[in-house]
UniProtKB/TrEMBL annotation:
InterPro entries linked: DinB-like, DinB/YfiT-like
Cited SUPFAM superfamilies: DinB/YfiT-like putative metalloenzymes
Coiled coil (UniProt feature): none
This protein's name: DinB superfamily protein
Annotated ranges, domain DinB-like: 37-166
Amino acid sequence: MNEILAPQEGEFAPFYSGYVAWVIGKDIPKLLLSQIEEVRFLFEKMGEEKSLKAYAPGKWTPKEVLGHIIDTDRIMCFRALCFARGEKSELPGFDQDTYVSNAHFNNIPLPKLLEDFEMSRYSLTSLLQSLPVDSLTNIGIANGANVSVRALFNIIPGHTQHHLNVLKEKY
């Protein structure tokens, strides 16, 4: 399955190269699920109070970072579903700062955010495991760039790992 899930050049925008490079050779379904425990451990260790403090002015709080990860998981999952089903219409991008600002993640209890992350990961994994293998190479357009279904499933855990690395470094 790992070979089937490895995207080829041209299946994703260069912006995502770092995310994809991080997951090469890894078992994507297992990685999606293992990040649940990694995220839970990090945030439970951090606690509610510390999760409300940004490391610098203008930066997101850890809770906002977690909310952004959840939003991104959901958006990428929707894109994967659309393209796996043969959607030909271009899907829009999203302004992450506007989404975070409008979500008010700091007002959501940390256990609820952790539950949302866990549920999003189970949903992603369930979708991935239910897709016909030939749909994984389907390509659609999102945010003005080509992206394959399998690239999306590589981008998701790579994106999460990027933010986990920042959280571990800054907090």
